[in-house]
Write a structure and sequence with these properties.
10 strands, 0% helix, globular
Length: 111
């Protein structure tokens, strides 16, 4: 059974940082590209970052230079380091590999 469990969200002031984690199980993690998505209220789900099986990374223009995606295949976990956060980054953040979705972790950027 595929499971993805996101954690690390919270309330942070503009300019602050958070590190999200997504612990996975039920599939061979190292074989899959991993993605972080986000969805803000009233908006469509947006692909934020991708890390391939060979550690190649891509980012949306809205987060490039501020967010870093990484993976630890020994822990079956993907991370999203988010720096210089803005109010527009407020959203529910999900990880995904094409096999299913977790419950997401809420990130709120507000003073």
């Amino acid at each position: 059974q595929v499971q993805l469990v996101e954690s690390g969200g919270g309330l942070v002031q503009p300019g602050g940082s958070l590190r999200l984690s997504c612990a996975t199980s039920g599939f061979t993690f190292s074989f899959y590209n991993m993605n972080w998505y986000r969805q803000a209220p009233g908006k469509q789900r947006e692909l934020v970052a991708t890390i391939s099986r060979s550690d190649t990374t891509t980012y949306s223009d809205s987060v490039k230079g501020r967010f870093t995606i990484s993976r630890d295949n020994s822990k079956n976990t993907v991370y999203l380091q988010m720096n210089r956060l803005k109010p527009d980054d407020t959203a529910l953040y999900y990880c995904n590999c094409g096999l299913g979705w977790g419950q997401g972790t809420q990130v709120t950027v507000s003073s």
